[in-house]
Write a structure and sequence with these properties.
8 helices, 4-stranded mixed beta sheet, 28% helix
Amino acid sequence: MDIEQVRVELLSLLEIDQVRENEDMSFHTTFRTGGYADFFLLPEVWQIPPLISMLKKLHVPYYFKGNGSNLLVSDKGYRGAIIELGQRAGEIEAMVAGRYGTIRAQAGAKLASVAAKAASLGLKGMEFASGIPGTIGGAVVMNAGAYESEMKDILDYALIMDHLGKVNMMNPNQLKLSYRHSIVPDLNYVVLGAKITLEVGNPDEIKRRTDEFKKLRFQKQPLEYPSAGSTFKRPQGYYAAKLIEDANLKGLSYGGAQVSTKHAGFIINKDEATSQDIYNLIKVVYQKVYNDFGVKLEPEVKFLGDFN
C-alpha cells in the first residue's frame, strides 16, 4: 500500500478533517485498547459507495466500525482504513401518525439515542435498547437485543449496500436476522441506515420500563470498567456466564484483563490491559469451558488485526 497515493486519492473525495492518519484506536473502542490504524475515515453516507470503490481499486483493506462496542483491535494496529459511521452519518428523523410512529436513522446513530427519541415521542418497543452502547448499523449487523427483545422485532427495513455498491432495502427476513447474527458480514454488505416502526404506548409505562432496564444493567453489569459487553454469545441450551462461573473462572486475570467478579459473562479492562491480554484471557476461558463442559463458546467480540 502506497500511503502517499492513498492519501492523495482519499482527499480527492473527502475533506481534510474526514481523513486521519495513524489514529490511536484505543480512543475508538469501548475496551479502550488497540494500536494505530493507517487511516481513520469519517465519511457522510452519500460518500460511502464511491469511497469503497476507491479503496478496492487501491487494494486498501477496510473495516466499518460503529461505536466500537464489540471490537478488539490488535496492539499492532490495523494496516488499512477504519471507516467510522457516527460523527457524519448519525442523523435521526421521526414522525408519529395515528397509532404508529416511524424512525429513520443513519447507520452511525447511537442506538440509545434512537431509543431515547422513541421514548420522547411515546413510542413503545425500544426500551430494551436504551442501554446498549452501539449504533443502529451495528445493531442491525448483529441483531442486537436484550431482555427478550431484538432488533428484528422492530425493524421495518435496513438500507444495505452490497459488494457491488448497489443500495437495496432489506427486511428482517431477507437479512436472516437470528440470535446475534445477520447475513451482512457474511456477504460483505454495509448497513447505511434503518427504518423502525413502533406503536404508540403509555409514556409512563415506557419510562418505567426504560428505568427498570437501566437499573438492572447498573446492578448486574460491570459498567465502571471498559469492556465490550457480553464477551460470548449464548450457547444453545446454556448461558455463557453460568458456564464461565461454574468453571471457576470468575475473577481470573491475564495481565490487566479480568473475568468480571460482578458478571462472569464480561471480560473487562481492569488495569491498563492490552488487547493481547484480553485476547489471551478469552482463549483461556474458551478452553477451560470446553474442557470442563464440552461447550464451545463463540465470541461476540470481533478481532481486528494480528494477535499472537
